Amino acid sequence: MINDFIFYPFIKTFRKKGFRLSLSLYRTNKPSPPFAGTPLKGAHLNGGITRSICALFWILFILSAPNSKLAVGQDFPGNGSTAGTRVSLPAELEPLLAAGGVPQTLEQLRVLEKQQQRVANLAAKCTVSVQIGSAQGCGVIVSDSGYILTAAHVAMRPNKTAVIKLSDGRIVTATTRGLYRSVDAGLIKINEGQDGGAGWPHATLGDSNNLKPGMWCIASGHPGGYDRGRGPVTRVGRILAVENDKIVTDCALIGGDSGGPLFDIEGRLIAVHSRIGNDVADNLHIPINHYDVNWKRLAAGESWGYLDGFKPMLGVSGNQSTGVAEVLKVAPGSPADDADIRVGDTIQRFGDVPITDFHSLTKAVSDTMPGERVEVWLRRNNQSLRKVVEIGRVE
């Protein structure tokens, strides 16, 4: 997610048997906390030829993917069908590339290039820009009825209005649904009908349980924010590590890519972009199976869990058993203290949520993200006051 753009060139040089390639990338120098620039620990694939090939693909494929028609399938979950959307590998290269092997000849590299282009054609139609307020991110349409997978920190909270921009320039509205914050998974639903009755173009779902380090993958998104003249940008990389709650790849991502899709080499959706590592080519993605397993809760608009290190905090305490949210204690130096919320104040509204007791206040705070600014309406000495608090995080 991005709020402002301050870019600097990030140069990587790759060498292999006299081959040298310098590649200029960009990342935000001032990313929106807490997701851009998050330190990352994980396994790494070695080998100069791998980095050289990925670098070459960066030059070949920072492009606007041309138009392509996606087949209409079923709503998530259970949309495992690849009919009409799978981009099958050439028979002679399937054993090599599907398993993550490295092309050994220039001809094999050209075949991989063509395969990436075919996947990019599919990715362009279902990759969308997501804007909520002034914050931007990405998403991927996964059903003909307009469900969009994204990151929880992009969706922010349930029942918020989102502006969705498609690759062809159309703009539609949507509503955020559920959030599984522990893995940074979020869901959004387009409000409009099914794209003239034909169904929204969408991705075919893969299975993240079948992934292994070394496999080729293709990332799509809107780095730096939506640009209709450019369209979604695709980048090629490989899987570095596979864990239950995250996939690590060397697909180069920057601010604005959060929530975008990650595809396997045959065009199946396998993950959603979550966080950017210290290195522009060392990034975390949410495995697709987390959305499948938790689909009913996400579609119902539930919000649960916390991403490690990012539990929101207001800094007040009160009596949970009374019928009002009266503040009994304010932690010194907390967000509430900074916003001049005092002992004895009765909080009546938190953002757009009416507060009836301390339990409802606790729930409202839990639905925010650290760094988010929220209007708080309270009662003090028979006066109604408005305060603006910047949500902190539990250390």
TrEMBL record:
<dbReference type="GO" id="GO:0004252">
    <property type="term" value="F:serine-type endopeptidase activity"/>
</dbReference>
<dbReference type="InterPro" id="IPR001940">
    <property type="entry name" value="Peptidase_S1C"/>
</dbReference>
<dbReference type="GO" id="GO:0006508">
    <property type="term" value="P:proteolysis"/>
</dbReference>
<dbReference type="InterPro" id="IPR036034">
    <property type="entry name" value="PDZ_sf"/>
</dbReference>
<dbReference type="Pfam" id="PF13365">
    <property type="entry name" value="Trypsin_2"/>
</dbReference>
<protein>
    <submittedName>
        <fullName>Putative serine protease HhoA</fullName>
    </submittedName>
</protein>
<dbReference type="InterPro" id="IPR001478">
    <property type="entry name" value="PDZ"/>
</dbReference>
<keyword id="KW-0645">Protease</keyword>
<keyword id="KW-0378">Hydrolase</keyword>
<dbReference type="InterPro" id="IPR009003">
    <property type="entry name" value="Peptidase_S1_PA"/>
</dbReference>
<feature type="domain" description="PDZ">
    <location>
        <begin position="312"/>
        <end position="385"/>
    </location>
</feature>
<comment type="similarity">
    <text>Belongs to the peptidase S1C family.</text>
</comment>
<dbReference type="Pfam" id="PF13180">
    <property type="entry name" value="PDZ_2"/>
</dbReference>
